[in-house]
Amino acid sequence: MLKIGNLVLKVPFIQAPLSGYSDYAMRRLALDFGAPLTFAGVMLAKSAAHPKILRKPDFQPHEDEHPVGAQIFDNDMAMMVKAAKDLQDTGYDIIDLNFSCPTPKVVSRKRGGWMMNDPDIVLETYKRVRDVVTCPLTIKVRIGFDSSEYSYDYFYEIVSEVSRLGIDAITIHGRTVEQRFTGPSNWDILAKVKDEFPNLTIIGSGDLFEPVDIINKLKTSKIDGVQIARGAVGNPWIYKGLIDVWEGKPAPETPNLAEQAEIMKKHFDMISKLYDRKKTVWYFRKFVVRYCRLHPMRKHVLRSLIAAKTGQELIDSIDHWYSDNEKVKSD
What we know:
Layout: E1 2-4, E2 7-9, E3 13-15, H1 24-32, E4 38-39, E5 43-44, H2 45-48, H3 51-54, E6 68-73, H4 77-90, E7 94-98, H5 104-107, H6 119-132, E8 137-142, H7 149-165, E9 169-173, H8 187-196, E10 202-205, H9 211-221, E11 225-228, H10 237-246, H11 257-274, H12 277-291, H13 298-307, H14 311-321
Parallel strand pairs: 3-11, 4-6, 5-6, 6-7, 7-8, 8-9, 9-10, 10-11
Antiparallel strand pairs: 1-2
Helix pairs in contact: 1-11, 4-6, 6-7, 9-10, 11-12, 11-14, 13-14
């Protein structure tokens, strides 16, 4: 169980907000496989605070996916406040403030992870948003902007203060902003923070790909939950696997080809209903890259699916490569 404010989740696994990925289709699949809470893609507060943009389907939660969260980032405190209030009023059940994004174009504009350099702004932003929203409010940080001692001190200052303020939860990615996604995520630091702040609800992030390893990280660090990001792209089965391992069952086997085909086609069908059909095949390719990793003939299948130019060509290719009668060999 994971408690975040007034949200009580049966299992401590969350679908992370992923820019360009965690749209309604991906969220719906995550829920179907057991994720108790999902987040929409990361939103620039300036956009989310604009009434015309906020009315777009991409920004709207669906009735069948609650609880669902929204994550925002910006360096404009007033925009963060307005966006958080507007997103709550739109129907989101939890708001997360992103102070962790390491993308160069975000950092160069002094947003996201850059703000780890200024704990005063991070903390003041949190306080001001807390004053205007009644739903659970969380923040996401990294263990510093870089590996310098003062950078870690800034991280520690943020964690210490939000703990004192009684934040609903904090998500910590075990890399610095400068590291982006290179090198191993430092789960020892997460364990150290939990040990020092036992009453602080901590959600871990970073290098979460395999159910057994994830559960081991969760238990050894003694944190409260984990946020699955890249590990869930093209792999919604990860949540079923996590639940099984969490309950003491063996890790499930890789889904067979027929099961993979069923979910891929279901995912593509949902995307086709969300977006302009002229763009759906192109848009789905980034998911195809991940789905194909589970196929024994990954390289051949990937080339075939990426070459599809229409929805029918894509479906035909899936039917061919994922047929139960298809004889496959390892790449």
